[in-house]
Specification:
Layout (H helix, E strand, L loop, with lengths): L20 E3 L6 H9 L13 H14 L3 E6 L4 E6 L2 H4 L17 E7 L7 H10 L4 E7 L13 E10 L11 E3 L5 H5 L3 H18 L8 E8 L5 H18 L2 E9 L11 H14 L3 E4 L5 H11 L2 E3 L1 H12 L3 H15 L26 H36 L3 E7 L5 H9 L16 E7 L2 E7 L9 H6 L1 H8 L3 E7 L5 H13 L8 E6 L6 H10 L4 E2 L8 H11 L3
Parallel strand pairs: 1-3, 4-5, 8-9, 8-10, 10-11, 12-14, 12-15, 15-16, 16-17
Antiparallel strand pairs: 2-3, 2-4, 5-6, 6-7, 13-14
Length: 572
Protein backbone atom coordinates (compact mmCIF):
# COMPACT_ATOMS: atom_id res chain seq x y z
CA UNK A 1 0.00 0.00 0.00
CA UNK A 2 1.33 3.45 -0.89
CA UNK A 3 2.10 5.01 2.46
CA UNK A 4 1.43 8.63 3.26
CA UNK A 5 4.39 10.76 4.30
CA UNK A 6 4.49 11.87 7.91
CA UNK A 7 3.08 15.37 7.56
CA UNK A 8 0.11 14.76 5.30
CA UNK A 9 -2.34 13.83 8.04
CA UNK A 10 -2.29 17.38 9.45
CA UNK A 11 -5.64 19.20 9.01
CA UNK A 12 -5.36 21.80 6.27
CA UNK A 13 -7.83 24.33 7.66
CA UNK A 14 -8.77 25.64 11.10
CA UNK A 15 -12.11 24.96 12.75
CA UNK A 16 -14.77 27.32 11.41
CA UNK A 17 -17.09 29.21 13.85
CA UNK A 18 -20.62 27.77 13.83
CA UNK A 19 -22.26 31.09 12.83
CA UNK A 20 -20.10 31.74 9.78
CA UNK A 21 -22.04 32.85 6.70
CA UNK A 22 -20.32 31.75 3.50
CA UNK A 23 -20.40 33.47 0.14
CA UNK A 24 -20.60 37.15 -0.72
CA UNK A 25 -21.96 39.00 2.31
CA UNK A 26 -21.16 42.50 1.02
CA UNK A 27 -24.11 44.89 1.11
CA UNK A 28 -26.06 42.92 3.72
CA UNK A 29 -27.59 44.83 6.59
CA UNK A 30 -26.87 43.91 10.19
CA UNK A 31 -30.38 42.52 10.75
CA UNK A 32 -30.11 40.41 7.57
CA UNK A 33 -26.84 38.91 8.82
CA UNK A 34 -28.54 38.14 12.14
CA UNK A 35 -31.40 36.40 10.35
CA UNK A 36 -28.91 34.23 8.49
CA UNK A 37 -26.93 33.43 11.63
CA UNK A 38 -30.12 32.49 13.52
CA UNK A 39 -30.65 29.70 10.98
CA UNK A 40 -27.93 27.77 12.81
CA UNK A 41 -30.25 27.59 15.83
CA UNK A 42 -32.85 25.59 13.86
CA UNK A 43 -33.25 21.86 14.43
CA UNK A 44 -35.19 19.79 11.90
CA UNK A 45 -36.81 16.37 12.43
CA UNK A 46 -34.37 13.62 11.44
CA UNK A 47 -36.91 11.81 9.23
CA UNK A 48 -37.91 14.78 7.01
CA UNK A 49 -36.02 16.56 4.27
CA UNK A 50 -37.29 19.94 5.51
CA UNK A 51 -40.28 21.41 7.26
CA UNK A 52 -42.62 23.93 5.60
CA UNK A 53 -41.72 26.45 8.30
CA UNK A 54 -37.96 26.22 7.73
CA UNK A 55 -38.39 26.29 3.94
CA UNK A 56 -40.57 29.41 4.13
CA UNK A 57 -38.10 31.08 6.47
CA UNK A 58 -35.21 30.35 4.11
CA UNK A 59 -37.29 31.58 1.16
CA UNK A 60 -38.19 34.77 2.98
CA UNK A 61 -34.58 35.68 3.72
CA UNK A 62 -33.55 34.82 0.17
CA UNK A 63 -36.30 37.05 -1.26
CA UNK A 64 -35.36 39.91 1.03
CA UNK A 65 -31.67 39.92 0.09
CA UNK A 66 -32.44 39.05 -3.58
CA UNK A 67 -29.86 36.24 -3.62
CA UNK A 68 -30.06 32.44 -3.59
CA UNK A 69 -29.32 30.70 -0.30
CA UNK A 70 -28.15 27.24 0.67
CA UNK A 71 -28.53 25.52 4.04
CA UNK A 72 -26.62 22.29 4.68
CA UNK A 73 -28.15 19.91 7.23
CA UNK A 74 -26.71 16.74 8.76
CA UNK A 75 -28.72 13.63 9.64
CA UNK A 76 -29.26 14.85 13.17
CA UNK A 77 -31.23 17.76 11.74
CA UNK A 78 -28.56 20.34 12.62
CA UNK A 79 -27.78 23.25 10.29
CA UNK A 80 -24.02 22.99 9.77
CA UNK A 81 -23.46 25.52 6.97
CA UNK A 82 -25.30 28.53 5.57
CA UNK A 83 -24.12 30.09 2.34
CA UNK A 84 -25.17 32.88 -0.01
CA UNK A 85 -25.13 31.58 -3.55
CA UNK A 86 -25.90 28.44 -5.53
CA UNK A 87 -24.95 24.90 -4.41
CA UNK A 88 -21.96 25.18 -6.74
CA UNK A 89 -20.81 28.43 -5.13
CA UNK A 90 -21.38 27.35 -1.52
CA UNK A 91 -20.32 23.70 -1.66
CA UNK A 92 -18.37 22.28 1.26
CA UNK A 93 -14.64 21.78 0.53
CA UNK A 94 -14.14 18.08 -0.05
CA UNK A 95 -11.43 17.77 2.61
CA UNK A 96 -13.88 19.13 5.22
CA UNK A 97 -16.55 16.56 4.46
CA UNK A 98 -16.93 13.46 6.65
CA UNK A 99 -14.93 10.47 5.39
CA UNK A 100 -17.07 8.15 3.32
CA UNK A 101 -16.66 5.58 0.61
CA UNK A 102 -18.22 5.03 -2.77
CA UNK A 103 -20.79 2.79 -1.06
CA UNK A 104 -22.10 5.62 1.15
CA UNK A 105 -23.43 9.16 1.01
CA UNK A 106 -21.82 11.93 3.03
CA UNK A 107 -24.67 12.35 5.54
CA UNK A 108 -25.49 15.95 4.58
CA UNK A 109 -28.38 17.36 2.53
CA UNK A 110 -28.73 20.80 0.98
CA UNK A 111 -31.83 23.02 0.91
CA UNK A 112 -31.30 25.66 -1.78
CA UNK A 113 -33.41 28.56 -3.02
CA UNK A 114 -33.63 29.55 -6.69
CA UNK A 115 -34.90 32.98 -7.69
CA UNK A 116 -35.99 31.78 -11.14
CA UNK A 117 -38.69 29.16 -11.71
CA UNK A 118 -36.52 26.40 -13.20
CA UNK A 119 -35.27 22.91 -12.40
CA UNK A 120 -31.85 22.46 -10.75
CA UNK A 121 -29.00 23.32 -13.11
CA UNK A 122 -26.30 20.83 -14.02
CA UNK A 123 -23.71 22.83 -12.03
CA UNK A 124 -25.80 22.34 -8.87
CA UNK A 125 -26.29 18.64 -9.59
CA UNK A 126 -22.55 18.23 -10.20
CA UNK A 127 -21.85 19.89 -6.84
CA UNK A 128 -24.26 17.39 -5.26
CA UNK A 129 -22.37 14.52 -6.89
CA UNK A 130 -18.96 15.87 -5.90
CA UNK A 131 -19.97 16.06 -2.24
CA UNK A 132 -22.12 12.89 -2.44
CA UNK A 133 -24.94 14.75 -0.69
CA UNK A 134 -27.87 12.79 0.69
CA UNK A 135 -30.21 15.00 -1.34
CA UNK A 136 -30.59 18.42 -2.95
CA UNK A 137 -33.87 20.26 -2.42
CA UNK A 138 -34.43 23.31 -4.64
CA UNK A 139 -37.08 25.87 -3.67
CA UNK A 140 -38.24 27.95 -6.64
CA UNK A 141 -39.27 31.46 -5.55
CA UNK A 142 -41.60 33.82 -7.41
CA UNK A 143 -42.72 37.38 -6.74
CA UNK A 144 -41.07 39.85 -4.44
CA UNK A 145 -42.58 38.40 -1.31
CA UNK A 146 -45.20 39.54 1.17
CA UNK A 147 -44.48 41.86 4.10
CA UNK A 148 -45.04 40.46 7.56
CA UNK A 149 -46.40 42.60 10.37
CA UNK A 150 -43.05 42.64 12.05
CA UNK A 151 -41.26 43.49 8.80
CA UNK A 152 -39.36 41.28 6.40
CA UNK A 153 -40.51 39.25 3.45
CA UNK A 154 -42.00 35.75 3.70
CA UNK A 155 -41.22 34.83 0.10
CA UNK A 156 -43.28 32.66 -2.23
CA UNK A 157 -42.36 29.05 -2.98
CA UNK A 158 -43.88 28.08 -6.30
CA UNK A 159 -42.28 24.71 -7.00
CA UNK A 160 -39.99 22.32 -5.18
CA UNK A 161 -37.56 19.88 -6.81
CA UNK A 162 -35.89 16.91 -5.12
CA UNK A 163 -32.65 15.53 -6.58
CA UNK A 164 -30.43 12.70 -5.33
CA UNK A 165 -27.77 10.32 -6.61
CA UNK A 166 -28.61 6.87 -7.94
CA UNK A 167 -26.27 3.91 -8.45
CA UNK A 168 -24.82 3.56 -11.94
CA UNK A 169 -23.48 0.50 -13.71
CA UNK A 170 -19.89 -0.71 -13.48
CA UNK A 171 -19.00 0.09 -17.08
CA UNK A 172 -20.36 3.65 -17.07
CA UNK A 173 -18.43 5.95 -14.74
CA UNK A 174 -20.59 9.03 -15.39
CA UNK A 175 -22.36 10.36 -12.32
CA UNK A 176 -26.03 9.42 -12.12
CA UNK A 177 -28.73 11.43 -10.48
CA UNK A 178 -32.46 11.78 -10.65
CA UNK A 179 -34.56 14.95 -10.41
CA UNK A 180 -38.22 14.79 -9.43
CA UNK A 181 -40.99 16.62 -11.27
CA UNK A 182 -42.21 19.83 -9.55
CA UNK A 183 -43.55 19.01 -6.09
CA UNK A 184 -45.51 20.91 -3.51
CA UNK A 185 -43.84 21.84 -0.25
CA UNK A 186 -46.43 19.82 1.66
CA UNK A 187 -45.79 16.61 -0.29
CA UNK A 188 -42.01 17.04 0.10
CA UNK A 189 -42.28 17.44 3.87
CA UNK A 190 -44.22 14.15 4.10
CA UNK A 191 -41.50 12.09 2.39
CA UNK A 192 -39.63 9.68 4.64
CA UNK A 193 -36.07 10.99 4.38
CA UNK A 194 -34.43 8.19 6.38
CA UNK A 195 -36.01 5.46 4.24
CA UNK A 196 -34.85 7.26 1.11
CA UNK A 197 -31.24 7.48 2.30
CA UNK A 198 -31.13 3.94 3.67
CA UNK A 199 -32.49 2.56 0.40
CA UNK A 200 -29.94 4.49 -1.66
CA UNK A 201 -27.00 3.39 0.47
CA UNK A 202 -28.17 -0.24 0.29
CA UNK A 203 -28.08 -0.02 -3.50
CA UNK A 204 -24.66 1.67 -3.46
CA UNK A 205 -23.32 -1.09 -1.20
CA UNK A 206 -24.60 -3.77 -3.59
CA UNK A 207 -22.85 -2.05 -6.48
CA UNK A 208 -19.70 -1.70 -4.39
CA UNK A 209 -19.62 -5.40 -3.52
CA UNK A 210 -20.30 -6.35 -7.15
CA UNK A 211 -17.03 -4.68 -8.13
CA UNK A 212 -15.16 -6.97 -5.69
CA UNK A 213 -13.15 -4.11 -4.29
CA UNK A 214 -9.97 -4.91 -2.37
CA UNK A 215 -10.08 -2.34 0.41
CA UNK A 216 -6.60 -3.28 1.67
CA UNK A 217 -4.85 -1.61 -1.28
CA UNK A 218 -4.96 1.99 -2.43
CA UNK A 219 -7.50 2.60 -5.18
CA UNK A 220 -5.63 4.84 -7.56
CA UNK A 221 -6.60 7.24 -10.32
CA UNK A 222 -3.63 8.19 -12.53
CA UNK A 223 -3.53 11.64 -14.12
CA UNK A 224 -1.28 12.22 -17.12
CA UNK A 225 -0.49 15.72 -18.38
CA UNK A 226 0.91 15.96 -21.90
CA UNK A 227 2.66 19.21 -22.79
CA UNK A 228 4.35 20.45 -25.94
CA UNK A 229 7.65 18.93 -24.80
CA UNK A 230 6.23 15.36 -24.90
CA UNK A 231 5.91 13.11 -27.89
CA UNK A 232 2.74 11.04 -28.02
CA UNK A 233 4.51 7.67 -27.77
CA UNK A 234 6.83 8.88 -25.03
CA UNK A 235 3.82 10.17 -23.06
CA UNK A 236 1.94 6.85 -23.34
CA UNK A 237 5.06 4.87 -22.41
CA UNK A 238 5.42 7.04 -19.33
CA UNK A 239 1.83 6.36 -18.26
CA UNK A 240 2.32 2.62 -18.77
CA UNK A 241 5.44 2.75 -16.62
CA UNK A 242 3.64 4.77 -13.94
CA UNK A 243 0.92 2.12 -13.88
CA UNK A 244 3.60 -0.51 -13.25
CA UNK A 245 5.09 1.65 -10.50
CA UNK A 246 1.72 2.00 -8.74
CA UNK A 247 1.15 -1.74 -9.06
CA UNK A 248 4.61 -2.43 -7.62
CA UNK A 249 3.88 -0.07 -4.72
CA UNK A 250 0.75 -2.06 -3.90
CA UNK A 251 -1.94 0.13 -5.44
CA UNK A 252 -4.82 -0.81 -7.72
CA UNK A 253 -5.14 1.45 -10.79
CA UNK A 254 -8.82 2.08 -11.47
CA UNK A 255 -8.49 4.43 -14.40
CA UNK A 256 -6.08 6.69 -16.28
CA UNK A 257 -7.20 10.16 -17.32
CA UNK A 258 -5.24 12.36 -19.71
CA UNK A 259 -5.04 16.07 -20.46
CA UNK A 260 -3.15 18.00 -23.11
CA UNK A 261 -1.99 21.55 -22.36
CA UNK A 262 0.67 23.84 -23.75
CA UNK A 263 2.18 24.12 -20.27
CA UNK A 264 1.20 23.07 -16.71
CA UNK A 265 -1.18 25.32 -14.78
CA UNK A 266 0.89 27.02 -12.05
CA UNK A 267 -1.66 26.40 -9.26
CA UNK A 268 -3.26 23.07 -10.13
CA UNK A 269 -1.17 21.67 -13.03
CA UNK A 270 -4.32 20.71 -14.96
CA UNK A 271 -6.65 23.67 -14.46
CA UNK A 272 -9.73 24.10 -12.25
CA UNK A 273 -12.17 22.53 -14.74
CA UNK A 274 -10.15 19.33 -14.98
CA UNK A 275 -9.73 19.27 -11.19
CA UNK A 276 -13.52 19.28 -10.81
CA UNK A 277 -13.88 16.57 -13.46
CA UNK A 278 -11.34 14.36 -11.68
CA UNK A 279 -12.94 15.04 -8.28
CA UNK A 280 -16.23 13.78 -9.68
CA UNK A 281 -14.51 10.72 -11.14
CA UNK A 282 -12.82 10.06 -7.79
CA UNK A 283 -16.20 10.01 -6.07
CA UNK A 284 -17.76 7.81 -8.76
CA UNK A 285 -14.95 5.24 -8.78
CA UNK A 286 -14.31 5.31 -5.05
CA UNK A 287 -10.62 6.18 -5.49
CA UNK A 288 -8.66 7.23 -2.41
CA UNK A 289 -5.43 8.32 -4.12
CA UNK A 290 -4.58 10.38 -7.21
CA UNK A 291 -1.13 9.96 -8.78
CA UNK A 292 0.32 12.47 -11.26
CA UNK A 293 2.87 11.59 -13.92
CA UNK A 294 5.09 14.57 -13.06
CA UNK A 295 6.64 16.22 -10.03
CA UNK A 296 4.32 18.55 -8.10
CA UNK A 297 5.17 21.55 -5.96
CA UNK A 298 3.91 21.70 -2.34
CA UNK A 299 1.36 24.39 -3.27
CA UNK A 300 0.07 22.33 -6.20
CA UNK A 301 -0.36 19.26 -3.98
CA UNK A 302 -2.26 21.35 -1.43
CA UNK A 303 -4.55 22.89 -4.07
CA UNK A 304 -5.22 19.53 -5.72
CA UNK A 305 -6.02 17.78 -2.44
CA UNK A 306 -8.41 20.60 -1.52
CA UNK A 307 -10.16 20.35 -4.89
CA UNK A 308 -10.30 16.56 -5.10
CA UNK A 309 -10.82 15.59 -1.47
CA UNK A 310 -8.28 12.73 -1.52
CA UNK A 311 -4.53 12.36 -1.20
CA UNK A 312 -2.45 13.45 -4.18
CA UNK A 313 1.10 12.22 -4.81
CA UNK A 314 3.51 12.57 -7.70
CA UNK A 315 5.68 10.05 -9.53
CA UNK A 316 8.70 10.66 -7.31
CA UNK A 317 6.77 9.87 -4.15
CA UNK A 318 5.59 6.56 -5.63
CA UNK A 319 9.20 5.63 -6.46
CA UNK A 320 10.32 6.60 -2.94
CA UNK A 321 7.59 4.40 -1.48
CA UNK A 322 8.77 1.43 -3.58
CA UNK A 323 12.34 2.02 -2.43
CA UNK A 324 11.15 2.11 1.19
CA UNK A 325 9.45 -1.26 0.73
CA UNK A 326 12.40 -2.85 -1.08
CA UNK A 327 15.25 -1.69 1.20
CA UNK A 328 16.48 -4.70 3.19
CA UNK A 329 20.01 -3.93 4.33
CA UNK A 330 20.98 -1.21 6.77
CA UNK A 331 22.77 0.66 3.99
CA UNK A 332 19.70 0.53 1.77
CA UNK A 333 17.37 1.78 4.51
CA UNK A 334 19.83 4.55 5.31
CA UNK A 335 19.90 5.78 1.72
CA UNK A 336 16.12 5.55 1.35
CA UNK A 337 15.55 7.62 4.48
CA UNK A 338 18.00 10.24 3.21
CA UNK A 339 16.15 10.42 -0.12
CA UNK A 340 12.76 10.73 1.60
CA UNK A 341 13.90 13.54 3.88
CA UNK A 342 15.49 15.43 1.00
CA UNK A 343 12.20 15.13 -0.87
CA UNK A 344 10.11 16.11 2.15
CA UNK A 345 12.06 19.14 3.40
CA UNK A 346 11.06 21.66 0.69
CA UNK A 347 7.46 20.39 0.86
CA UNK A 348 6.94 21.40 4.47
CA UNK A 349 6.49 25.03 3.42
CA UNK A 350 3.02 26.26 2.59
CA UNK A 351 1.14 24.27 5.23
CA UNK A 352 0.00 27.52 6.86
CA UNK A 353 -1.69 27.27 10.26
CA UNK A 354 -1.45 23.51 10.23
CA UNK A 355 2.34 23.68 10.63
CA UNK A 356 2.46 26.65 13.00
CA UNK A 357 2.08 26.77 16.78
CA UNK A 358 3.72 28.36 19.82
CA UNK A 359 5.82 26.31 22.15
CA UNK A 360 4.82 25.65 25.77
CA UNK A 361 6.75 25.98 29.03
CA UNK A 362 9.54 28.17 30.38
CA UNK A 363 11.66 29.80 27.73
CA UNK A 364 9.20 29.27 24.90
CA UNK A 365 6.75 32.14 25.46
CA UNK A 366 6.64 35.33 23.44
CA UNK A 367 6.65 35.38 19.66
CA UNK A 368 7.66 31.74 19.78
CA UNK A 369 8.78 29.53 16.94
CA UNK A 370 6.50 28.03 14.33
CA UNK A 371 6.15 24.28 14.17
CA UNK A 372 7.32 24.52 10.57
CA UNK A 373 10.65 26.02 11.65
CA UNK A 374 11.02 23.38 14.35
CA UNK A 375 10.38 20.56 11.90
CA UNK A 376 12.76 22.06 9.34
CA UNK A 377 15.54 22.26 11.91
CA UNK A 378 14.90 18.72 13.14
CA UNK A 379 14.94 17.33 9.60
CA UNK A 380 18.05 19.39 8.82
CA UNK A 381 19.89 17.81 11.74
CA UNK A 382 18.75 14.34 10.72
CA UNK A 383 19.86 15.01 7.13
CA UNK A 384 23.32 16.05 8.32
CA UNK A 385 23.71 12.86 10.33
CA UNK A 386 22.48 10.70 7.46
CA UNK A 387 24.88 12.43 5.07
CA UNK A 388 27.73 11.58 7.44
CA UNK A 389 26.63 7.94 7.56
CA UNK A 390 26.36 7.79 3.76
CA UNK A 391 29.86 9.30 3.54
CA UNK A 392 31.10 6.56 5.88
CA UNK A 393 29.36 3.95 3.74
CA UNK A 394 30.97 5.51 0.68
CA UNK A 395 34.42 5.33 2.30
CA UNK A 396 33.85 1.73 3.38
CA UNK A 397 32.93 0.64 -0.14
CA UNK A 398 35.90 2.57 -1.49
CA UNK A 399 38.22 0.57 0.78
CA UNK A 400 36.66 -2.68 -0.41
CA UNK A 401 37.19 -1.66 -4.02
CA UNK A 402 40.85 -0.83 -3.33
CA UNK A 403 41.35 -4.26 -1.76
CA UNK A 404 39.89 -5.88 -4.86
CA UNK A 405 42.12 -3.76 -7.07
CA UNK A 406 45.21 -4.91 -5.11
CA UNK A 407 44.25 -8.47 -5.93
CA UNK A 408 44.28 -7.47 -9.59
CA UNK A 409 40.74 -8.72 -10.18
CA UNK A 410 38.75 -6.94 -12.86
CA UNK A 411 35.27 -5.70 -11.95
CA UNK A 412 32.19 -5.39 -14.15
CA UNK A 413 29.13 -3.42 -13.05
CA UNK A 414 25.79 -4.62 -14.41
CA UNK A 415 23.64 -1.59 -15.22
CA UNK A 416 20.32 -1.14 -16.97
CA UNK A 417 16.74 -0.03 -16.76
CA UNK A 418 14.72 -1.36 -13.86
CA UNK A 419 13.22 -4.82 -14.50
CA UNK A 420 15.60 -5.46 -17.40
CA UNK A 421 16.72 -8.74 -15.78
CA UNK A 422 20.03 -7.73 -14.13
CA UNK A 423 19.48 -9.82 -10.98
CA UNK A 424 18.32 -12.82 -13.02
CA UNK A 425 21.48 -12.50 -15.12
CA UNK A 426 23.89 -12.44 -12.17
CA UNK A 427 22.07 -15.47 -10.75
CA UNK A 428 22.44 -17.29 -14.07
CA UNK A 429 26.17 -16.47 -14.27
CA UNK A 430 27.23 -16.98 -10.65
CA UNK A 431 24.35 -18.68 -8.75
CA UNK A 432 24.29 -15.58 -6.54
CA UNK A 433 20.81 -16.24 -5.13
CA UNK A 434 19.73 -12.60 -5.53
CA UNK A 435 16.00 -11.98 -5.11
CA UNK A 436 14.25 -11.69 -8.47
CA UNK A 437 10.68 -10.76 -9.42
CA UNK A 438 8.82 -9.32 -12.38
CA UNK A 439 8.60 -5.96 -10.62
CA UNK A 440 10.18 -2.55 -10.88
CA UNK A 441 13.07 -2.06 -8.42
CA UNK A 442 12.85 -5.60 -7.07
CA UNK A 443 16.36 -5.22 -5.60
CA UNK A 444 18.13 -2.11 -4.31
CA UNK A 445 21.28 -3.28 -2.59
CA UNK A 446 24.34 -3.97 -4.75
CA UNK A 447 25.52 -7.58 -4.85
CA UNK A 448 29.06 -8.58 -5.90
CA UNK A 449 29.91 -12.16 -6.95
CA UNK A 450 32.93 -13.89 -8.54
CA UNK A 451 32.71 -15.25 -12.07
CA UNK A 452 35.41 -17.60 -13.39
CA UNK A 453 35.92 -17.81 -17.15
CA UNK A 454 38.87 -19.76 -18.63
CA UNK A 455 40.81 -19.60 -15.35
CA UNK A 456 40.23 -15.84 -15.24
CA UNK A 457 38.28 -14.25 -12.39
CA UNK A 458 35.82 -11.37 -12.77
CA UNK A 459 33.80 -9.56 -10.13
CA UNK A 460 30.21 -8.90 -11.22
CA UNK A 461 28.23 -6.26 -9.32
CA UNK A 462 24.45 -6.00 -9.62
CA UNK A 463 23.41 -2.35 -9.17
CA UNK A 464 20.13 -0.52 -8.55
CA UNK A 465 17.98 -0.20 -11.65
CA UNK A 466 17.68 3.07 -13.52
CA UNK A 467 14.47 4.73 -14.62
CA UNK A 468 13.47 7.60 -16.86
CA UNK A 469 13.95 10.91 -15.03
CA UNK A 470 15.41 9.27 -11.93
CA UNK A 471 14.53 11.60 -9.02
CA UNK A 472 17.53 13.80 -8.05
CA UNK A 473 17.07 12.94 -4.36
CA UNK A 474 17.59 9.26 -5.19
CA UNK A 475 20.67 9.95 -7.28
CA UNK A 476 22.20 11.91 -4.41
CA UNK A 477 21.20 9.42 -1.70
CA UNK A 478 22.41 6.40 -3.68
CA UNK A 479 25.72 7.91 -4.74
CA UNK A 480 27.52 5.34 -2.54
CA UNK A 481 25.84 2.59 -4.54
CA UNK A 482 26.23 4.27 -7.92
CA UNK A 483 29.98 4.64 -7.34
CA UNK A 484 30.15 0.92 -7.99
CA UNK A 485 29.39 1.94 -11.58
CA UNK A 486 31.99 4.67 -11.86
CA UNK A 487 34.76 2.60 -10.26
CA UNK A 488 34.16 -0.56 -12.30
CA UNK A 489 36.62 -1.59 -15.01
CA UNK A 490 33.76 -2.16 -17.46
CA UNK A 491 29.98 -1.97 -17.69
CA UNK A 492 27.48 -4.56 -18.82
CA UNK A 493 24.35 -2.73 -20.02
CA UNK A 494 21.37 -5.10 -19.87
CA UNK A 495 18.37 -4.19 -22.05
CA UNK A 496 14.91 -5.76 -21.98
CA UNK A 497 14.34 -6.35 -25.68
CA UNK A 498 10.76 -7.53 -25.06
CA UNK A 499 9.74 -4.11 -23.69
CA UNK A 500 7.96 -1.89 -26.24
CA UNK A 501 10.05 1.12 -25.19
CA UNK A 502 13.44 -0.62 -25.09
CA UNK A 503 15.01 2.00 -27.35
CA UNK A 504 14.02 4.94 -25.12
CA UNK A 505 15.15 2.94 -22.07
CA UNK A 506 18.64 2.71 -23.60
CA UNK A 507 18.59 6.48 -24.07
CA UNK A 508 17.54 7.04 -20.42
CA UNK A 509 20.29 4.78 -19.06
CA UNK A 510 22.93 6.43 -21.24
CA UNK A 511 21.76 9.88 -20.10
CA UNK A 512 22.18 8.88 -16.43
CA UNK A 513 25.62 7.38 -17.10
CA UNK A 514 26.73 10.58 -18.84
CA UNK A 515 25.82 12.54 -15.70
CA UNK A 516 28.17 10.43 -13.58
CA UNK A 517 31.01 12.54 -12.10
CA UNK A 518 33.68 10.12 -13.35
CA UNK A 519 34.00 8.74 -16.87
CA UNK A 520 32.88 5.12 -16.90
CA UNK A 521 34.84 2.28 -18.51
CA UNK A 522 34.05 0.38 -21.73
CA UNK A 523 30.53 -0.99 -22.06
CA UNK A 524 29.02 -4.14 -23.53
CA UNK A 525 25.35 -4.19 -24.52
CA UNK A 526 23.42 -7.34 -23.62
CA UNK A 527 19.90 -7.62 -25.03
CA UNK A 528 17.94 -9.81 -22.62
CA UNK A 529 14.61 -11.68 -22.89
CA UNK A 530 15.08 -12.50 -26.57
CA UNK A 531 12.73 -15.45 -26.07
CA UNK A 532 9.89 -12.95 -25.53
CA UNK A 533 10.86 -10.41 -28.19
CA UNK A 534 9.31 -10.22 -31.65
CA UNK A 535 11.44 -11.62 -34.47
CA UNK A 536 11.37 -8.29 -36.35
CA UNK A 537 12.52 -6.40 -33.26
CA UNK A 538 15.33 -8.89 -32.65
CA UNK A 539 16.59 -8.64 -36.23
CA UNK A 540 16.49 -4.84 -36.16
CA UNK A 541 18.42 -4.74 -32.86
CA UNK A 542 21.10 -6.99 -34.35
CA UNK A 543 21.47 -4.55 -37.24
CA UNK A 544 21.55 -1.44 -35.01
CA UNK A 545 23.88 -2.98 -32.39
CA UNK A 546 26.19 -5.42 -34.20
CA UNK A 547 28.65 -5.65 -31.29
CA UNK A 548 25.99 -6.53 -28.70
CA UNK A 549 25.28 -9.96 -27.28
CA UNK A 550 21.74 -11.40 -27.33
CA UNK A 551 20.70 -13.54 -24.39
CA UNK A 552 17.87 -14.91 -22.28
CA UNK A 553 18.97 -14.94 -18.65
CA UNK A 554 15.93 -16.86 -17.41
CA UNK A 555 16.53 -19.66 -19.97
CA UNK A 556 20.36 -19.34 -19.77
CA UNK A 557 20.63 -18.77 -23.52
CA UNK A 558 23.82 -17.09 -24.76
CA UNK A 559 25.65 -17.26 -21.42
CA UNK A 560 28.90 -18.66 -22.84
CA UNK A 561 29.02 -16.03 -25.57
CA UNK A 562 28.44 -13.34 -22.94
CA UNK A 563 31.28 -14.64 -20.73
CA UNK A 564 33.80 -14.58 -23.56
CA UNK A 565 32.74 -11.12 -24.68
CA UNK A 566 33.22 -9.87 -21.10
CA UNK A 567 36.79 -11.27 -21.14
CA UNK A 568 37.51 -9.47 -24.40
CA UNK A 569 35.98 -6.27 -23.02
CA UNK A 570 38.45 -6.00 -20.14
CA UNK A 571 41.43 -7.19 -22.22
CA UNK A 572 42.29 -10.28 -20.18
Amino acid sequence: MIRELKYKDVPLSPVTPIDTIYGNTQGLKANQMKQLQRLYNERLPIDTLTTPEFAQRLAGISTEIHQPLCAYINRRGQIIRVGIGTPRQTQIPLLELPRYGVERLCGIRCIATELKPEAPKEASLTAMALQRLDALVTLNLTGSGMIRRGGGATGYIEDVYLAHLVPGDEDNHESKWTVSPPLSLESLSKQDFLSLVEGLETEFQKEFRARQVDTKSDRVLIVGLMTEDNKAQQFEDGLTELTRLVDTAGGEVLEITRQKRSHPHPQTVIGSGKVEEIALLVQTLGANLVVFNRDLSPAQIRNLETGMGVRVVDRTEVILDIFAQRAQSGAGKLQVELAQLEYMLPRLSGRGLAMSRLGGGIGTRGPGETKLETEKRTIGKRLSRLQQEVNQLQAHRSRLRKQRQKQDVASVAIVGYTNAGKSTLINALTSAGVYTADQLFATLDPTTRRLTVEDKTLLLTDTVGFIHELPPSLVDAFRATLEEVTEADALLHVVDLSHPAWSSQITSVNAILEEMPIQTGPMLMAFNKIDRADTEVLEQAKIDYPNAVFISASRRVGMETLKHKLLNLINY
